[in-house]
Amino acid sequence: MNKSATSDWLLFLCFTVAVLAMPIWLKPFGADYPDLMQRFAIFGIFAIGFNILFGLTGYLSFGHAAFLGAGSYAALWSYKLLTMNVIPAVIFSIIIAGIFAFLIGFVSLRRSGIYFSILTLAFAQMSYNLAYSVLMPITNGETGLQLNLADPRILDRAAGIEATNSLPLPNIFGVATTGMPGFYFCAVILIIGFFIALRITRSPFGMMLKAIKSNQTRMAYTGFNTRPYLLWAFVISGMYAGLAGGLMAVTDPLAGAERMQWTASGEVVLMTILGGVGTLIGPVLGAALIKYFENIFSSFNKSELQEVFAFLPEGLADIMVSVSSMFVGKSWHLTLGLVFMIVVIFLPGGIMEGVRRMGRMFGIGKAPKEPLSVANTQGSQANG
Amino acid sequence: MDNVVLHVADVHKSFAGLHALSDIDLTVREGETHAIIGPNGAGKSTLLNVCIGRLKPDSGHVVFDGENLTGKLPHQINQLGVVRVFQTPEIFPDLTILENVMVPILAKRDGSFKLNWFRRFSGEKSVRDKASEILSNLGLGNMLDYDASSLSRGDKRRLELAMGLSQEPRLLLLDEPTAGMARHDTNSTIELLKTIKATGMTNVIIEHDMHVVFSLADRISVLAGGKIICQGTPDEVKADPRVKEAYLGEEQV
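^ Those are the sequences you sent over. The predicted structure of the assembly is below.
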């Protein structure tokens, strides 16, 4: 009992160190620049939150990008109306996304399985289209919501901070959240988000969510009202998505409706499955891996490929370049698709299952739990 | 009729014109073990489903301890203390055996919903101790940390019984607790149910096996064709010619 609490603290400590030390250990991978590391953190938060719903309850939402978008818009409005300080912006993005998730979840959770997924997808696409049409005054449509010199910024002006000749930068009490400070801000929030997810997973509430995933009907006959459990899980994961959306506006203060598109909802599903559904670390790994590959593979172009294959005879090099160019640049999604297929087929539990299998191979970790022999049950299936 | 705990009054239920239950009137008294018997398709399981809120009766109502159960949701009925043990074991296959029993204890302690996300589940020591004690009593004490899905069918049923008992129900509904069991297992289940009975718990038991029924029941209701054709003590039921005709005749008791 205390052993599990200790191992959780150890896990949390390792996670914290690994996140804060990202600029060091990501150097050999060429991924140690703040912009990319920040994206790791933001999408890590998004995937951790998504996993609270999908990993624990088994309800697969295809509309979580709606909350991401809502969070971005909320942060932008906080900049425009109140202050360029990022803390209120982040808080607002969580609250707004939470309210939004409550409304969508309340309706969508009347169904389960594929119908639930379709309902969430429909709501997200609805939000996406509304952002381009009816909600133009809030979202500024296709141009996206941007800062303006003439914005009220009530709190900033009251504090005597005026933006005169150039657009103000998002900041945290005066320190602009661009570059490394921006990354560390997101990293700290990722660590807090991970801690909360860890507590939820290990709590009685988290156990009820797992039990709902295991046998929802049984939960009702065990005396649980499953609806509020599911709704809370949905709202919490929506708040994580909103937080991620708000953080996107921390370095780059603009918000567009494309963040709500279904491809963005699909991406977080991929991240979670790739990393390992229902695990704590998996979603973060999946998110980082996808963002890393996106960054590395999409930046390759033909001339770089030619350099790579320059050692081959000319004809062969041309063939290699044209074949491999299908996997990089704009069509890097082909690589992602292949990686995803390989993982799902050979490691259905995602990267974390691979880690577990390796651990078992080296004799660490637990053996699968199967009773060796069970007394007095012989013949119990005799006439079943 | 003193101390009536459960009163099924005038319940009708039909499926697409087929009368599954008609005119059902049944009373269960406090502390008794009441068996419901009848041939296949007599409506026994339908009756149980009406009691726990899985099915709504077309007319009539079910009253438990002064509360009308009709129209209540399954979790509300459970929270009142009516607990059902299913015929095909309904457990949480992905949780461990210990967790399977801890979850129902928490339902009883914390009610139908509680957002306690900051406590540790594994730190709930009293719940844990109670669950492992119940499991030990049922002979599952040496495999608390195994996944429930790895159990044999017979042990799954035992586990489900443990889940039911852990909630200290005021009324325990058992749906064919020995179906599909070998004689040896049936006997140990009878002994187990006798000890439960000795605690004064009210039980309703649906059963096929006459040996089980006559060793446990205080009173018996015989269901045939969706009607109760006879209700009384085991001796009265044995002697009733209608029962012999409808049911016992085939079974050679």
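The beta strands of chain A are 145-146, 171-172, 175-176, 254-255. Chain A has a mean pLDDT of 89.

Shout if you want it in another format.
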